[in-house]
Design the sequence.
């Protein structure tokens, strides 16, 4: 690729590039760049929202650069305030390390392990905090600069508390860039302040400032809120093939195009020329194959077409053994077909629950025979057994 082609390839879907001239200069140098992406292991699972930045990191790898995945075992204990309207609960270190073990396995579904360095930021932040460097750094960053953050402004206006640890978070993330001498740092749009602090700290430490690149926060399958496990609108990187394919088929046509732009390298004009249903099946197949394999993606497509196009039951269903006289809402909740018993009752009242194809619209004791099929929503099927 020419330099212009490389820049177009690397900035596809990006919101902020600070600064593009700096990126061009670094690429023209011919040097293998060190490209940093940090993630705090605050949960055990990654989803497609995380994969947007991971996919951008993979593009740098494809051009021969080195990816540095920073596992924030130190910063996860602080809690990133970015984009939040309340203080994030602090996790115990044992839980942080347990979550971190799963992160690299999932990240390597996107990244090339041979071109990836894994770093834990406690390596340099523990001595940074306990030595004189923290005091030296604090002298160079003003309170006014920190409180200019949009998320802090909103929380102060709402009277929500902001801890001093959260105020220090951006300094810790910026120190990651100093310790690694990062050439480029990636993050979501909610991370732009932290990435710019990294540039500032690198300048103060006599380093060439990193290029800061942000990607949009992926909207979840509901088409409204950002993708998050807590909102139930996520596609997990560890989701089973049928679940992943089915969730992707549930997104709107408009959202589908956003997913194509942010999660694939497909030609967008060619996608727009396709029939929307076929384009959506292609997207679901591409992503399911990426996180599983081609055979699993094809089987998931066939399963989807059988269940949703031909209105047949899937070939394989988990077996449920409800207790005698158990309420239907309790059965759905225990089967994880609903996030709560109240939501299970909502599904029932909406006519989204069927027994052998017949709608059940009132909650009550579930009466069934061995082999009966219970369906909740469009994707959840269970074979019942005593």
Sequence:
């Amino acid at each position: 690729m020419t330099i212009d082609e490389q820049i177009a390839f690397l900035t596809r879907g990006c919101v902020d590039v600070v600064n593009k001239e700096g990126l061009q200069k670094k690429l023209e140098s011919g040097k293998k760049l060190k490209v940093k992406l940090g993630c705090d292991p605050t949960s055990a699972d990654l989803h497609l929202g995380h994969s947007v930045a991971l996919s951008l990191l993979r593009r740098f790898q494809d051009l021969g650069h080195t990816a540095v995945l920073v596992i924030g075992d130190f910063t996860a204990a602080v809690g990133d305030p970015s984009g939040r309207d309340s203080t994030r609960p602090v996790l115990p270190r044992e839980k942080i390390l347990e979550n971190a073990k799963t992160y690299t396995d999932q990240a390597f579904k996107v990244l090339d392990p041979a071109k990836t360095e894994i770093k834990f930021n406690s390596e340099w932040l523990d001595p940074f905090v306990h030595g004189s460097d923290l005091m030296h750094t604090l002298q160079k960053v003003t309170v006014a600069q920190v409180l200019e953050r949009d998320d802090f402004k909103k929380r102060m206006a709402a009277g929500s508390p902001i801890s001093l640890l959260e105020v220090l978070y951006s300094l810790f993330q910026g120190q990651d860039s100093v310790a690694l001498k990062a050439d480029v740092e990636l993050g979501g749009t909610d991370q732009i302040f932290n990435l710019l602090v990294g540039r500032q700290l690198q300048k103060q430490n006599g380093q060439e400032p990193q290029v800061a690149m942000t990607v949009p926060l992926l909207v979840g399958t509901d088409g409204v809120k950002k993708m998050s496990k807590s909102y139930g609108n996520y596609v997990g990187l560890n989701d089973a093939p049928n679940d992943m394919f089915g969730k992707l088929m549930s997104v709107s046509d408009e959202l589908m195009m956003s997913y194509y732009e942010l999660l694939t390298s497909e030609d967008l004009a060619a996608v727009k020329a396709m029939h929307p249903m076929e384009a959506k099946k292609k997207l679901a197949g591409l992503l399911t194959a990426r996180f599983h394999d081609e055979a699993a993606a094809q089987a998931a497509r066939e399963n989807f077409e059988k269940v949703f196009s031909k209105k047949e039951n899937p070939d394989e269903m988990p077996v449920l053994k409800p207790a005698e006289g158990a309420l239907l809402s309790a059965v759905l909740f225990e089967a994880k077909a609903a996030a709560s018993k109240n939501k299970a009752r909502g599904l029932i009242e909406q006519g989204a629950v069927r027994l052998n194809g017949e709608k059940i619209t009132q909650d009550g004791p579930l009466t069934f025979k061995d082999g009966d099929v219970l369906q909740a929503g469009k994707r959840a099927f269970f074979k019942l057994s005593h």
